[in-house]
Amino acid sequence: MEVRDFLAGLLFAYIPVILCEFWYTRRTHASAARYLTSSGLVISIGVFSSLCTLFTFQIGPGTPLNFALVCLSWGFFLLSWTRALISLAIYILCQVILSFAIHIDKGESANEAIHIVISELNHSILTVVVFAILMSLTSWILRNQPAFHRGMGIVIALCGYGAFDYVYTMRMLMRAPLHLSNFAWFLAIVGAAVAMAVRVTVGGYNAHIMAKNQMRLEKSELVSQLAASVAHEIRNPITVVRGFTQLLASKEYDRDTTMGFYTTMVDELDRAESIIGEYLNIAKPPLGDDETDVDLPVLLKGAVQALKPYALDKNVDLHLTLRAEVMIRGNYSTVLQVMINVIKNAIEACADVDSASVVIELNKVKTNAELKVVDTGSGMSKTTLEKLGQPYYSTKSQGTGLGLTLAYKVIHELGGGIFVDSEEGRGTTFSIVLPLAENALRRTATTGFVHLETDS
């Protein structure tokens, strides 16, 4: 084996692994989860896998090997199978570009280079399809399994693919005899390299899965708390409708009085329907990760309407002041969840304070939307403020702190920021600054970077 090509190929295969592990060990769990699901990791796996092919070495007579499979297989371990397929597609695109450039550098014409590249693609299409199907099935089947089981499943699947690839390449394409020792070296080197990559990043993967599960629990807790308040609030319109129904059944009234009764009953039923609708908007999962223009005043009205029963149950006055009509860029369900989390925290901070209130105020400041959530609750100390937003840190006895962690993460990804001013005994002010939709679109076009969210 050529030691230089072996070491160089292994280095390129492990660069995404090293970057991922470095990020995990130097950042919080939430930051690691964000990196693990970013397009940066998806792209780096595809690009560095392609660079690995530049350092092909021989493990025996007529048996070439490179570490592209190591990097791609590790991607199927760490990412969802859909994003791993994107990495595979990027790898194929890079391979086409590299192959074309190499043939042009050899002095061949553009037409000749294109013809050769197409011929190479035709020869490798079957192996690529088999690899994609086998790895995708393995990743999907083991999607909820512990890191060790998922990693070993990927290694076993890779060995199965390796057997097919070796036999197909050697016998069908190269018409060369099979060497059992070379085949054993092939499986040993590639399998061991993938197993090591899995071992290095198993902590990051477990933290990523834990963060996802904790966020689901946080949302379930929010929904269950709101359900009790909503049930209490719905009793009022139901009681009104029941009372008027009994009145109409007891005796006959003139037309105007009867129509007045009916109008009131319909209004109360509409109010109940509105309460239920807002609750369902919170309870249902997001429909997708696509960013759209979000009408922030409309979103805030929905969030406040949904939380009013909860605020009444806590004896907290909830007020919304809209001083500007602004549009931001983001996923509606995700931004709604963030606003719900922030406002709900403000309500809970006022739970033990008499005559408490929470005021939400929306302004337009230059090219940004500025949202202030001001409560007259118990406030926070400097120590608490320093830890605010960290996963698993919460001032609530049964809180996980992931609600605010999610808020910081989402607002940061949207190009905004969260600023907190608080004093013990005097309340807290959360200021959320977000770029307007036109500025967000301009920023995305300039950077060309789109964040990807995790899926299961």
Automatic annotation (TrEMBL):
Keywords: ATP-binding, Kinase, Membrane, Nucleotide-binding, Phosphoprotein, Transferase, Transmembrane, Transmembrane helix, Two-component regulatory system
Catalytic activity from the UniProt record: ATP + protein L-histidine = ADP + protein N-phospho-L-histidine
InterPro entries: HATPase_C_sf, HATPase_dom, His_kinase_dom, HisK_dim/P_dom, HisK_dim/P_sf, Sig_transdc_His_kin-like_C
SUPFAM superfamilies xref list: ATPase domain of HSP90 chaperone/DNA topoisomerase II/histidine kinase, Homodimeric domain of signal transducing histidine kinase
Keyword Membrane: yes
Pfam families referenced in this protein's UniProt entry, alphabetically: HATPase_c, HisKA
Coiled-coil regions listed: none
Entry EC no(s): 2.7.13.3
SMART domains found in the cross-reference section: HATPase_c, HisKA
Transmembrane parts of this sequence: 6-24, 36-57, 88-104, 124-142, 154-171, 183-207
EC category: transferase
Domain Histidine kinase: 229-438
Protein name as it appears in the record: histidine kinase
Organism annotation: Alicyclobacillus fodiniaquatilis
